[in-house]
Amino acid sequence: MRLLALDYGADVVYCEELIDIKMAQCQRIVNDVLETVDFVAPDERVMFRTCEREKDRVIFQMGTADPERALKVARLVEKDVAAIDVNMGCPKEYSTKGGMGAALLSDPDKIEAILKKLVKGVSVPVTCKIRILPSLEETVNLVQRIEKTGVTAVAVHGRFKDERPRHPVHCDYIQAVAQAVSIPVIAKISPDDSVENLYYKQCAF
Question: Where does the DUS-like FMN-binding domain lie (predicted)?
Answer without folding.
Answer: 29-187
